[in-house]
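Task: sequence design from structure.
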C-alpha cells in the first residue's frame, strides 16, 4: 500500500482475535493518532490457503472490531471504490460515537472511512477516523484517501 499521511505511521501489533476467523499470516499494521481525535490505521493480511475474500464480510468484521474498541451508534454506508490506477475495492463510511473507558459516551460524533481491497491472496485495509467537528478533518481524510495506491507484485 502506498499512502500519503500527515505524519509517519508507526508499526503496531495486531491481536489475532480481531481477525474474526480469517487464517492470515504476514500481518502488518501501521497507525498514527488517537482514536478520540484523529486516527489512521493501515493494515495488510496475507490470507493462508485458498480462502475466498469477501469484502462485505471483511467490512462487517472491521466494523465489529471498531465496536469492540468502544464505538456505538454506527451509521454505515458502503459503495464500490476505485483507485486512480483502476484497482477496485469496497468503501464503508459514516458516523459513530465513542465510549470512554469509564463507559460514558463522548459528546462529539466521529466520522470514519474504511477502504478494503482483496488482491492476490491478501487483504489491505485503510481506516481514517476523526472528530466530526474537526475543522480540517474532511480535507485531511480526502487527501489521504485520494493518495491510496496498491502495488501489485509479479509473484
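Answer:
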Amino acid at each position: 500500500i502506498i499512502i500519503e499521511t500527515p505524519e509517519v505511521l508507526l508499526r503496531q501489533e495486531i491481536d489475532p482475535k480481531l481477525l474474526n476467523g480469517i487464517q492470515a499470516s504476514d500481518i502488518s499494521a501501521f497507525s498514527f493518532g488517537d482514536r478520540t481525535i484523529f486516527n489512521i490505521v493501515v493494515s495488510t493480511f496475507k490470507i493462508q490457503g485458498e480462502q475466498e475474500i469477501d469484502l462485505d464480510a471483511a467490512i462487517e468484521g472491521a466494523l465489529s472490531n471498531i465496536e469492540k474498541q468502544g464505538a456505538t451508534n454506527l451509521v454505515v454506508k458502503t459503495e464500490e471504490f476505485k483507485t486512480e490506477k483502476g484497482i477496485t475495492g469496497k468503501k464503508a463510511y459514516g458516523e459513530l460515537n465513542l465510549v470512554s473507558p469509564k463507559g460514558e459516551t463522548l459528546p462529539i460524533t466521529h466520522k470514519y472511512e474504511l477502504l478494503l481491497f482483496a488482491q492476490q491472496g491478501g487483504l489491505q485495509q485503510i481506516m481514517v477516523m476523526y472528530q466530526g467537528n474537526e475543522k480540517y478533518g474532511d480535507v485531511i481524510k480526502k487527501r489521504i484517501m485520494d493518495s491510496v495506491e496498491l502495488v501489485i507484485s509479479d509473484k
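The first strand starts at residue 10 and ends at 12.
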